[in-house]
Amino acid sequence: MNAITVNNVTKTFRDGTTALSDVSFTVNPGEGVILLGHNGSGKSTLFKCISGFEKPTSGEILYGDKDITRLSKRKFRPIRKKLGMVFQNFHLIYNLSVFQNVLFGAMGNSKTFLHTLSFCASDELRMKAMECLDRVGLAHLAGRRADQLSGGQQQRVAIARMLMQDPEVVLADEPIASLDPRAGREVMELLWEIVRERHLTVVCILHQTEVALEYGERFIGLHSGKLVMDQVQGQVSKEELSTLYNKESSFESFSKAGASHE
Ligand SMILES: Nc1ncnc2c1ncn2[C@@H]1O[C@H](COP(=O)(O)OP(=O)(O)OP(=O)(O)O)[C@@H](O)[C@H]1O
User: Fold this and answer.
1) Domain that holds residue 190
2) Residue ranges lining ligand 1, Cβ < 6 Å
3) Among protein residues, the one whose CA lies closest to atom 18 of ligand 1
4) Which of these, 11, 89, 117, 231, could form a disulfide with 20 (CB 3.0-4.6 Å)?
5) DSSP-derived secondary structure for the chain
Protein backbone atom coordinates (compact mmCIF):
# COMPACT_ATOMS: atom_id res chain seq x y z
CA MET A 1 0.00 0.00 0.00
CA ASN A 2 1.25 3.43 -0.93
CA ALA A 3 0.92 6.87 0.60
CA ILE A 4 -0.35 9.74 -1.53
CA THR A 5 1.75 12.86 -1.12
CA VAL A 6 0.60 16.20 -2.48
CA ASN A 7 3.58 18.56 -2.52
CA ASN A 8 3.12 22.28 -3.12
CA VAL A 9 0.46 21.76 -5.76
CA THR A 10 -0.82 24.81 -7.59
CA LYS A 11 -3.35 24.61 -10.41
CA THR A 12 -4.12 27.63 -12.55
CA PHE A 13 -6.51 27.12 -15.46
CA ARG A 14 -6.03 28.76 -18.87
CA ASP A 15 -8.54 31.49 -18.04
CA GLY A 16 -6.34 32.53 -15.09
CA THR A 17 -8.46 30.91 -12.32
CA THR A 18 -6.21 29.54 -9.60
CA ALA A 19 -8.14 26.57 -8.17
CA LEU A 20 -5.32 25.26 -5.94
CA SER A 21 -2.60 27.29 -4.35
CA ASP A 22 0.49 25.61 -2.88
CA VAL A 23 -1.43 22.68 -1.35
CA SER A 24 0.60 20.08 0.56
CA PHE A 25 -0.40 17.02 2.62
CA THR A 26 0.21 13.29 2.83
CA VAL A 27 -2.48 10.63 3.07
CA ASN A 28 -1.07 7.56 4.77
CA PRO A 29 -2.01 4.05 3.61
CA GLY A 30 -5.31 2.95 5.13
CA GLU A 31 -6.21 6.43 6.35
CA GLY A 32 -9.80 7.74 6.10
CA VAL A 33 -9.70 11.39 5.11
CA ILE A 34 -12.66 13.69 4.62
CA LEU A 35 -12.04 16.65 2.31
CA LEU A 36 -14.23 19.67 2.96
CA GLY A 37 -14.62 23.18 1.62
CA HIS A 38 -17.11 25.64 0.13
CA ASN A 39 -18.25 25.46 -3.49
CA GLY A 40 -15.33 26.41 -5.69
CA SER A 41 -12.72 25.84 -2.97
CA GLY A 42 -10.81 23.41 -5.21
CA LYS A 43 -11.85 19.96 -3.96
CA SER A 44 -12.77 18.50 -7.35
CA THR A 45 -9.70 20.00 -8.98
CA LEU A 46 -7.57 18.32 -6.32
CA PHE A 47 -9.29 14.99 -7.01
CA LYS A 48 -8.73 15.43 -10.74
CA CYS A 49 -5.04 16.11 -10.12
CA ILE A 50 -4.70 13.04 -7.86
CA SER A 51 -6.50 10.82 -10.38
CA GLY A 52 -4.50 12.15 -13.31
CA PHE A 53 -7.36 13.91 -15.16
CA GLU A 54 -5.69 17.29 -14.63
CA LYS A 55 -2.02 18.18 -14.44
CA PRO A 56 -0.99 20.60 -11.70
CA THR A 57 0.61 23.79 -12.98
CA SER A 58 3.39 23.24 -10.44
CA GLY A 59 4.18 20.89 -7.58
CA GLU A 60 4.12 17.12 -7.48
CA ILE A 61 1.78 14.30 -6.49
CA LEU A 62 3.48 11.13 -5.36
CA TYR A 63 1.88 7.72 -5.29
CA GLY A 64 4.38 5.87 -3.14
CA ASP A 65 7.65 7.20 -4.57
CA LYS A 66 6.33 7.84 -8.09
CA ASP A 67 5.52 11.37 -9.16
CA ILE A 68 2.34 10.81 -11.18
CA THR A 69 2.43 14.31 -12.64
CA ARG A 70 5.48 13.33 -14.64
CA LEU A 71 4.44 9.86 -15.78
CA SER A 72 3.40 9.13 -19.35
CA LYS A 73 -0.17 7.86 -19.85
CA ARG A 74 1.19 4.34 -20.30
CA LYS A 75 3.21 4.43 -17.08
CA PHE A 76 0.36 6.04 -15.15
CA ARG A 77 -2.16 3.32 -16.20
CA PRO A 78 -1.17 0.71 -13.56
CA ILE A 79 -1.41 3.38 -10.84
CA ARG A 80 -4.75 4.63 -12.18
CA LYS A 81 -6.13 1.10 -11.75
CA LYS A 82 -5.40 1.30 -8.04
CA LEU A 83 -7.52 4.44 -7.69
CA GLY A 84 -11.21 3.61 -7.36
CA MET A 85 -13.61 6.48 -7.99
CA VAL A 86 -17.12 7.01 -6.63
CA PHE A 87 -19.04 9.98 -8.01
CA GLN A 88 -22.00 12.06 -6.87
CA ASN A 89 -23.99 11.13 -9.97
CA PHE A 90 -22.93 7.47 -10.00
CA HIS A 91 -21.71 7.53 -13.65
CA LEU A 92 -23.47 4.27 -14.57
CA ILE A 93 -24.45 3.27 -18.10
CA TYR A 94 -28.17 3.41 -17.59
CA ASN A 95 -29.43 1.36 -20.53
CA LEU A 96 -27.26 -1.61 -19.50
CA SER A 97 -27.80 -4.15 -16.76
CA VAL A 98 -26.47 -3.81 -13.24
CA PHE A 99 -24.26 -6.85 -13.91
CA GLN A 100 -22.79 -5.32 -17.07
CA ASN A 101 -22.07 -2.05 -15.26
CA VAL A 102 -20.16 -3.94 -12.58
CA LEU A 103 -18.23 -5.98 -15.15
CA PHE A 104 -17.03 -2.73 -16.75
CA GLY A 105 -15.18 -2.03 -13.51
CA ALA A 106 -12.67 -4.67 -14.58
CA MET A 107 -11.90 -2.84 -17.83
CA GLY A 108 -8.64 -1.42 -16.59
CA ASN A 109 -7.48 -4.85 -15.41
CA SER A 110 -8.66 -6.79 -18.43
CA LYS A 111 -6.75 -7.16 -21.68
CA THR A 112 -9.48 -5.71 -23.85
CA PHE A 113 -12.82 -3.97 -23.58
CA LEU A 114 -14.40 -7.13 -25.08
CA HIS A 115 -13.40 -9.14 -22.01
CA THR A 116 -15.68 -7.00 -19.89
CA LEU A 117 -18.80 -7.48 -22.05
CA SER A 118 -21.11 -9.94 -20.32
CA PHE A 119 -21.31 -12.32 -23.28
CA CYS A 120 -17.49 -12.45 -23.65
CA ALA A 121 -16.37 -12.25 -20.02
CA SER A 122 -14.59 -15.22 -18.47
CA ASP A 123 -16.36 -17.28 -15.81
CA GLU A 124 -13.83 -15.91 -13.33
CA LEU A 125 -14.72 -12.30 -14.12
CA ARG A 126 -18.44 -13.04 -14.08
CA MET A 127 -18.12 -14.72 -10.71
CA LYS A 128 -16.13 -11.80 -9.34
CA ALA A 129 -18.80 -9.36 -10.57
CA MET A 130 -21.47 -11.36 -8.74
CA GLU A 131 -19.33 -11.40 -5.58
CA CYS A 132 -18.92 -7.62 -5.75
CA LEU A 133 -22.69 -7.21 -6.24
CA ASP A 134 -23.32 -9.56 -3.37
CA ARG A 135 -21.02 -7.47 -1.16
CA VAL A 136 -23.19 -4.41 -1.76
CA GLY A 137 -26.38 -6.46 -1.26
CA LEU A 138 -27.60 -6.29 -4.85
CA ALA A 139 -26.86 -9.71 -6.36
CA HIS A 140 -30.61 -10.27 -6.75
CA LEU A 141 -30.84 -7.24 -9.06
CA ALA A 142 -27.96 -8.23 -11.38
CA GLY A 143 -30.21 -8.53 -14.44
CA ARG A 144 -32.11 -5.30 -13.94
CA ARG A 145 -31.41 -2.20 -16.04
CA ALA A 146 -29.41 0.35 -14.07
CA ASP A 147 -32.01 3.07 -14.66
CA GLN A 148 -34.62 0.97 -12.86
CA LEU A 149 -32.85 1.27 -9.50
CA SER A 150 -33.22 3.84 -6.74
CA GLY A 151 -30.43 6.38 -6.24
CA GLY A 152 -29.06 4.50 -3.22
CA GLN A 153 -29.03 1.25 -5.21
CA GLN A 154 -27.30 2.97 -8.14
CA GLN A 155 -24.57 4.22 -5.84
CA ARG A 156 -24.15 0.69 -4.46
CA VAL A 157 -23.73 -0.58 -8.03
CA ALA A 158 -21.07 2.09 -8.53
CA ILE A 159 -19.30 0.83 -5.39
CA ALA A 160 -19.47 -2.76 -6.69
CA ARG A 161 -18.04 -1.58 -10.03
CA MET A 162 -15.18 0.09 -8.15
CA LEU A 163 -14.49 -3.14 -6.23
CA MET A 164 -13.97 -4.96 -9.57
CA GLN A 165 -10.83 -2.85 -9.93
CA ASP A 166 -9.31 -4.14 -6.67
CA PRO A 167 -8.42 -0.55 -5.73
CA GLU A 168 -5.95 0.45 -3.02
CA VAL A 169 -7.38 3.94 -2.77
CA VAL A 170 -10.97 5.16 -2.93
CA LEU A 171 -11.59 8.72 -4.12
CA ALA A 172 -15.23 9.47 -3.35
CA ASP A 173 -16.52 12.78 -4.72
CA GLU A 174 -19.65 13.68 -2.73
CA PRO A 175 -20.94 10.09 -2.77
CA ILE A 176 -24.15 10.93 -0.89
CA ALA A 177 -24.96 14.36 -2.31
CA SER A 178 -27.68 13.04 -4.65
CA LEU A 179 -29.31 10.82 -2.03
CA ASP A 180 -31.91 11.40 0.66
CA PRO A 181 -30.52 11.36 4.24
CA ARG A 182 -31.45 7.74 4.92
CA ALA A 183 -30.07 6.35 1.65
CA GLY A 184 -27.01 8.57 2.14
CA ARG A 185 -26.31 7.08 5.57
CA GLU A 186 -26.69 3.56 4.19
CA VAL A 187 -24.23 4.28 1.39
CA MET A 188 -21.70 5.86 3.79
CA GLU A 189 -22.04 2.92 6.17
CA LEU A 190 -21.46 0.44 3.35
CA LEU A 191 -18.57 2.37 1.80
CA TRP A 192 -16.80 2.73 5.14
CA GLU A 193 -17.38 -0.93 6.07
CA ILE A 194 -15.81 -1.95 2.75
CA VAL A 195 -12.80 0.35 3.01
CA ARG A 196 -12.18 -0.83 6.58
CA GLU A 197 -12.45 -4.55 5.81
CA ARG A 198 -10.08 -4.17 2.83
CA HIS A 199 -7.77 -1.69 4.60
CA LEU A 200 -8.18 0.78 1.74
CA THR A 201 -7.12 4.39 1.84
CA VAL A 202 -10.07 6.73 1.34
CA VAL A 203 -10.33 10.39 0.52
CA CYS A 204 -13.97 11.46 0.52
CA ILE A 205 -15.41 14.86 -0.36
CA LEU A 206 -18.43 15.59 1.82
CA HIS A 207 -20.59 18.63 2.45
CA GLN A 208 -22.47 17.16 5.42
CA THR A 209 -20.44 18.10 8.49
CA GLU A 210 -22.22 15.71 10.91
CA VAL A 211 -21.63 12.78 8.57
CA ALA A 212 -18.03 13.90 8.12
CA LEU A 213 -17.45 13.92 11.87
CA GLU A 214 -18.98 10.48 12.22
CA TYR A 215 -16.80 8.77 9.62
CA GLY A 216 -13.61 10.81 9.19
CA GLU A 217 -10.38 10.01 10.95
CA ARG A 218 -8.83 13.13 9.56
CA PHE A 219 -10.25 16.34 8.09
CA ILE A 220 -8.59 18.34 5.36
CA GLY A 221 -10.18 21.68 4.59
CA LEU A 222 -9.72 23.82 1.51
CA HIS A 223 -10.67 27.47 1.34
CA SER A 224 -10.29 29.44 -1.89
CA GLY A 225 -7.75 26.90 -3.15
CA LYS A 226 -5.62 26.91 -0.01
CA LEU A 227 -5.25 24.17 2.57
CA VAL A 228 -6.52 25.77 5.78
CA MET A 229 -7.28 22.76 7.97
CA ASP A 230 -5.63 19.42 8.60
CA GLN A 231 -6.91 17.93 11.84
CA VAL A 232 -7.51 14.46 13.19
CA GLN A 233 -10.72 13.20 14.79
CA GLY A 234 -11.31 14.71 18.23
CA GLN A 235 -9.40 17.91 17.39
CA VAL A 236 -12.17 19.60 15.48
CA SER A 237 -15.83 20.49 16.14
CA LYS A 238 -18.84 20.67 13.85
CA GLU A 239 -18.74 24.48 14.20
CA GLU A 240 -15.12 24.59 13.05
CA LEU A 241 -15.93 22.39 10.06
CA SER A 242 -18.89 24.65 9.25
CA THR A 243 -16.63 27.72 9.01
CA LEU A 244 -15.04 26.11 5.96
CA TYR A 245 -18.29 26.80 4.11
CA ASN A 246 -18.15 30.52 4.77
CA LYS A 247 -16.03 32.20 2.12
CA GLU A 248 -15.42 35.13 4.50
CA SER A 249 -13.98 32.94 7.30
CA SER A 250 -10.54 33.62 8.64
CA PHE A 251 -8.44 30.58 9.37
CA GLU A 252 -5.64 31.98 11.44
CA SER A 253 -7.02 30.18 14.51
CA PHE A 254 -6.63 26.75 12.95
CA SER A 255 -3.34 25.01 13.28
CA LYS A 256 -2.58 22.72 10.40
CA ALA A 257 -1.90 19.44 12.09
CA GLY A 258 -0.28 18.19 8.89
CA ALA A 259 3.10 18.17 10.58
CA SER A 260 1.93 15.26 12.70
CA HIS A 261 1.22 13.26 9.55
CA GLU A 262 4.47 13.92 7.75
N1 LIG B 1 -11.67 23.69 -16.29
C2 LIG B 1 -11.75 24.82 -15.58
N3 LIG B 1 -11.43 25.99 -16.13
C4 LIG B 1 -11.46 27.14 -15.41
N5 LIG B 1 -11.79 27.19 -14.10
C6 LIG B 1 -12.11 26.04 -13.51
C7 LIG B 1 -12.11 24.80 -14.20
N8 LIG B 1 -12.48 23.81 -13.32
C9 LIG B 1 -12.70 24.43 -12.14
N10 LIG B 1 -12.48 25.77 -12.26
C11 LIG B 1 -12.59 26.77 -11.19
O12 LIG B 1 -11.68 26.37 -10.15
C13 LIG B 1 -12.25 26.68 -8.88
C14 LIG B 1 -12.31 25.40 -8.06
O15 LIG B 1 -13.30 24.54 -8.65
P16 LIG B 1 -13.58 23.08 -8.10
O17 LIG B 1 -14.61 22.47 -9.01
O18 LIG B 1 -12.32 22.36 -7.90
O19 LIG B 1 -14.22 23.40 -6.68
P20 LIG B 1 -15.02 22.46 -5.68
O21 LIG B 1 -14.50 22.75 -4.34
O22 LIG B 1 -14.96 21.06 -6.16
O23 LIG B 1 -16.51 23.01 -5.83
P24 LIG B 1 -17.91 22.24 -5.67
O25 LIG B 1 -18.07 21.94 -4.21
O26 LIG B 1 -18.91 23.24 -6.16
O27 LIG B 1 -17.86 21.01 -6.54
C28 LIG B 1 -13.61 27.31 -9.16
O29 LIG B 1 -13.43 28.72 -9.15
C30 LIG B 1 -13.96 26.84 -10.56
O31 LIG B 1 -14.79 27.75 -11.21
Assistant:
1) 29-52+85-247
2) 13, 15, 17, 19, 37, 39-45
3) 42
4) 11
5) ---EEEEEEEEE-TTS-EEEEEEEEEEPTT-EEEEE--TTSSHHHHHHHHTTSS--SEEEEEETTEEGGGS-HHHHHHHHTTEEEEETT----TTSBHHHHHHGGGTTTSSSGGGGSTTT--HHHHHHHHHHHHHTT-GGGTTSBGGGS-HHHHHHHHHHHHHTT--SEEEEESTTTTS-HHHHHHHHHHHHHHHHHTT-EEEEE-S-HHHHHHH-SEEEEEETTEEEEEEETTS--HHHHHHTT-TT---TT--BGGGGG-
